[in-house]
Amino acid sequence: MRMTMRWFGEGNDRIPLEHIKQIPGVEGVVWSLHDVPAGEEWPMEKILEVKEQADRHGLNIDVVESVNVHEDIKLGLPSRDEYIENYIKTIEKLAKVGVKVICYNFMPVFDWTRTDLFKEMEDGSTALFFENDKLKNIDPIELVNTISKNSTYTMPGWEPERLAHLADLFEKYKNVTEEDLWENLQYFLEKVIPVAKKNDIKMGIHPDDPPFSVFGLPRIITNKQNLERFLKLVDDPYNGLTLCSGSLGANLKNDVAEMVRSFSDRIHFAHIRNVKTYENGDFIETSHRTQDGTVDVYEIVKAYHEIGFTGYARPDHGRHIWGEECRPGYGLYDRGLGVMYLWGIWDSLQRVNKEVK
Ligand code: DNO
Ligand code: MN
User: Fold this and answer.
1) Triad 323, 32, 50: Cα angle to 5°
2) What is the Å distance from ligand 1's center to 207 Cα?
3) What's the CA-to-centroid distance between 253 and ligand 1, angstroms?
């Protein structure tokens, strides 16, 4: 398991690389060019800038999260070919600087969805929260306005230029079914996977978060059966998964440890975090510790250990603790604790199995 930490870039993340470097066992940053709109080709100078910054701190840039997919590709519009061309050129450039894994998602309109970014917990910390009823009764534009009021950051997937066209986008998705989305995903993969393979970059789709439809939009990367279907769309090792335990864990029926065992050779990137999911569909993001949520993080790490996982991993969202002011879900402190919890489990498994002294 190769540990990494997501970093939003100089000037866009309050956490300096010096601090990331101090977390034991973290060897690389998971990065992106957050100011390049989805669908555009990434400029080489900007890619090289990030590489230089990471190099200076002895961190690798092997994993990119995400190269976002333009909505026209998900919608299957004729203009998709041009955006796919740009995607391909970006893959080729990323290969030149040694990138090994690209994480992306195929969620219409939004990336992750929550109803509260700073929900107060009993211990005084705050965390990302999803309230099912609230979501059912709120208009997406109203939700975006309420939650972005409380955040000084742009969240991935909620960029102002996209949100400005929200009503338009919803209109375009009106008649798009889940089957349409499968077809559009297949079209995209058939063009992109051969290029990724040629460039030795593994593609890892991120599951939908939460793993069910929100605001009536279709969502397909949601459970084991659909992940199986996804892997068959282009049955090639380069077409793989970013297995996110927290996203999938928002459905109590998803057994992520079992998915790790089943999809072992197709998991290129592991997102490991816990959530506490309630029967009514609400969920709150908790510490990584197994006892704190409903995701069996211990069993998941054990499954990765059993399959001899040599891919990349990162702690995913954390709580906001110790008064840290940070990007929602992406503070330093709780994610740092998360890394140490994951190593704690991993290292003790190695000891028990006499793999190390
Ligand atoms: C949530 C996060 C996601 C992820 C994107 C990848 O679990 O990991 O927001 O970054 O969906 O495209
Ligand atoms: Mn994730």
Assistant:
1) 95
2) 8
3) 20
Give me ligand 1 centre to Cα 356, in Å: 33
Spacing, Cα 8 to ligand 2 middle (Å): 15
Tell the residue nearest (CA) to atom 4 of ligand 1: 206
Please tell me the residue having the least CA distance from ligand 1 atom 10. Answer: 65
Nearby residues of 326 by Cβ (< 8 Å), 6 or more positions away: 14, 15, 320, 332
SS3 269: strand
Whole-Å CA distances, 174 to 56, 77, 140, 167, 215: 48, 14, 14, 11, 11
Q: Does the model's pTM come out above 0.90?
A: yes
Pairwise CA distance, residues 63 & 240, whole Å = 14
Could you check whether the bond before residue 66 is cis, i.e. omega within 30 degrees of 0? Answer: yes
Predicted local confidence at residue 35, as pLDDT: 93
Q: How far apart are CA 93 and CA 23, in angstroms?
A: 29
E strands, 121-272, where? 126-130, 202-206, 239-244, 267-272
In single-letter form, the type of residue at position 189 comes to L
CATH of the domain at 269: 3.20.20.150
Domain that holds residue 275: 2-356
Where does ligand 1 bind, in terms of residues with CB under 6 Å?
Answer: 65-66, 103-105, 111-112, 156, 206, 209, 244, 246-247, 271, 316
Determine contact, residues 345/298, Cβ cutoff 8 Å. yes
**Looking at ligand 1, which atom is closest to the CA of residue 246?**
7
Number of domains in the chain: 1
How much is the pLDDT for 151?
A: 64
Helix (H) or strand (E) holding 188: helix 178-198
Predicted ipTM > 0.90: yes
When the pLDDT of each residue in the chain is averaged and rounded to a whole number, the result is 94
Which of 105, 130, 275, 286 gets mutated to test ligand 1 (max ligand atoms within 8 A of its CB)?
105
Q: Residue 172: what residue type?
A: K
